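Shapes recur. One chain:

:::
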Amino acid sequence: MFMFMLVLKHACCVCASAEYEINGHCCHMCAPGNRVLWHCTVDTSTTCVSCSASTYTDEPNGLEMCFSCSTCDAGLRIQKACTRLSNTICEPLKGFFCMVRKKGSCKLAVKHSQCNPGEYIQQKGTASTDTVCGECTNGTYSDGTFTACQTHTICQSMGRKQIETGTTSSDAKCEHTPNGLVIGSITGVVVVVVIVVIGVSVTQFVIFKHKSKARPGIK
């Protein structure tokens, strides 16, 4: 008899999927966006009311209080505002990526890593992944902001002397071209241009004189 009563008591507390148990009774749940105002009794059904501003329920429930809407923490911004039926959806700000996500909303965002000098950006960070850095090898360099390592400048190929060896984080440095050499080069170019202009002018003058003599009546 005792076992029968125990089984009967247990059976009376097993509620259907759309019900919740309270004080030994199975009550109908409130719909999403609502909460319980009065629990059901033997004679009455559950009384539900809408969630107030800045609160929500996103599932059928037997709650007496709606959940408070979440706010987006540092490094996050609102992707979708909170409603009676759903919580706030947050997404990372530009330059951040999401590390903790729950129910489609980012809960924790971290700033993208920066590559160090001697490293290049192998893969740019996204809203869900961090920046991936790669190391430059000998003969190349990057200050940490390049998307590919750059080849060191070869000063000898430009006829200049190397004054500082390149590293994985900086380019080789060449001596500056002497001012006298630059001025001499410019002067040489100007002289050549002047000679060409004079030559063209003399040629045109000779041709003109020749044509004038060939035509009678033209003095």
Notes: The longest helix spans residues 179-214. The CA atoms of residues 181 and 187 lie 10 Å apart.
